[in-house]
Amino acid sequence: MAAISKSGNRSSGDALASRFSLAAKLYSIFALIALLTAAIAILSDYNTRRNAELTEAIETANRGAFNVERVNSLVYAVVMESRGVYMSTDPAVVKKYGAPKVPAGSAASRPGRGRVVPMPCRPSHASAESRSRTRNVMP
Questions:
Q1: 16 domain-assigned
Q2: Total domain count for the chain?
Q3: pTM here?
């Protein structure tokens, strides 16, 4: 009975595996490894390029946020200067806040240098009563 089971039908996997020689099996394994290596190299190149694009996008957003912060600080400075003008009661104090902060001949006062030069302001024409009310409302 043992002789019958040994000489029985072979499975289809054994027949396929025995049909190829050892050299063909090794070549197919090496070809598969080479194909996987090429696929990994292509994916690595794609990821490197995508990383560079995303890094540039983050740097652009960072520069934009920095510029917005600069503009915000300049607007804040203008608001504080205007508060100094309209809350002042003495003309000498108003002149102090209305005078330009940058000398007229300096590079920062010339247009196109990327800097904001405060413009001279005229004193407010509001009455003393309205200025005192405003002073009590705004610290």
A1: no
A2: 1
A3: 0.45
Within-domain flag for 85: yes
- Three-state secondary structure string covering the chain: CHHHHHCCCCCHHHHHHHHCCHHHHHHHHHHHHHHHHHHHHHHHHHHHHHHHHHHHHHHHHHHHHHHHHHHHHHHHHHHHHHHHHHCCCCHHHHHHHHCCCCCCCCHHHCCCCCCCCCCCCCCCCCCHHHHHHHHHHCC
**Structural contact between residues 91 and 123, judged by C-beta atoms closer than 8 angstroms:** yes
Residue with tokens 């090496």: 30
pLDDT confidence bin for 123, thresholds 50/70/90: very low
Backbone angles phi, psi at 111, to 5 degrees: -65, 155
The per-residue pLDDT for range 63-95, each reduced to its tens digit, is: 999 999 999 999 998 888 888 777 777 877 777
